[in-house]
Amino acid sequence: MDAQRRPFRKAVRSVIYSLGPTRWSPLVFLVYQVAWITALVALMVAATRGKAAPPSYSWDHVVPLWVPWAGALGGSTISVVGVVSHSREWDGLGFAYWHLARPILGMITGSVAVLVLLFVLKGIAPDVIPASDENYTPGGTAVLFVIAFVVGYREETFRELVKRVVDVLLGPGEKAATQRLALVPGILLLQAEAAVGGSVSGSVTLFNNTQDTFDLKSAGLKINGDPEFTVTWTDNGPLGPGDARAINVTWTPDTPPVRSERILRVEVGGYSLTATVRATVS
Fold first, then answer.
1. 20 to 30 Å CA-CA from 120: which of 3, 177, 219, 253?
2. How far apart are CA 199 and CA 229, in angstroms?
3. For the residues of 71-122, what is the DSSP string, one character each?
4. At what angle do helices 26-48 and 92-124 cross, to 10 degrees?
5. Where are the chain's structural domains?
6. CA contacts within 13 A on the Cβ side of 110
7. Tens digit of pLDDT for each residue in 148-175?
8. What is the DSSP string of 249-261?
9. At what angle do helices 66-85 and 138-153 cross, to 10 degrees?
10. Which pTM value belongs to this model?
């Protein structure tokens, strides 16, 4: 009996496999996403009755209807871009379900990202967020729409946002928070007198707040711009834990001197640090 059913089962599995998303052509996914976009547009037109404002639902004070709508639209848009860009080297086995889930994932990630960023906007743009008994202004809705669309379109943005939120709320970890290199000051001012020639010097200090020792002889030390600026170590010996080392910055301006701004860059032990050098004329 089992031997008789085996060909039938094999045929059923073959049909199911052939109908599975991994076997679909890029055109199917393109039509799928176009259908999503069409449905989203129809939903918004029906919900707003053709007006450029969402209805005042009770949850509208948290996020407007445009937010999940924009997130889903962003997810569908990036899926369309992927289908069109990779139609010749289509990998259905690897990306079929990714394309199917993009609108829903965009809706979720866009909405959550907006909820997270609302806390930031409360501090830097309080007019964007309405009071509990008010609706969003058109400008505030537009800002949240753009955020949700971008996050729905680019999922890497959402992952980076979540990582930063976790670091802020829970801390980046003891090692990441306390062990680092730093250039102080971040901005070095060099001032030359307009009627006097010669050189002007200053220094930036590299602090080692890690448990590692760095070989400054192999470190990269440079400043962009013309030969008017030179940078040197006061001592290029090993920089141990808790040590600090000064970097001399010399400006030899032309006559008359001209204001300029340069970037000092230090690359050591996998770290890349920068400081700004501002040359002014008194």
1. 177
2. 10
3. HHHHHHHHHHHHHHHTSTT--HHHHHHHHHHHHHHHHHHHHHHHHHHHHHHH
4. 30
5. 2-170, 179-281
6. 32
7. 999 999 888 888 888 777 766 665 554 4
8. EEE---SS---EE
9. 30
10. 0.47
The pLDDT of residue 124 is 45
Beta bridge pairs of residue 152: none
Which position has the token pair 């871009």? 81
**Radius of gyration of the CA atoms of the chain, in A:** 29
Query: Which of these, 226, 231, 232, 234, lies nearest to 261 by C-alpha position?
Result: 226
- Give 10-residue mean pLDDT values along the chain (282 residues): 59 57 72 84 72 50 80 90 81 75 88 80 52 65 87 85 70 53 84 69 88 88 81 89 89 76 87 86 72
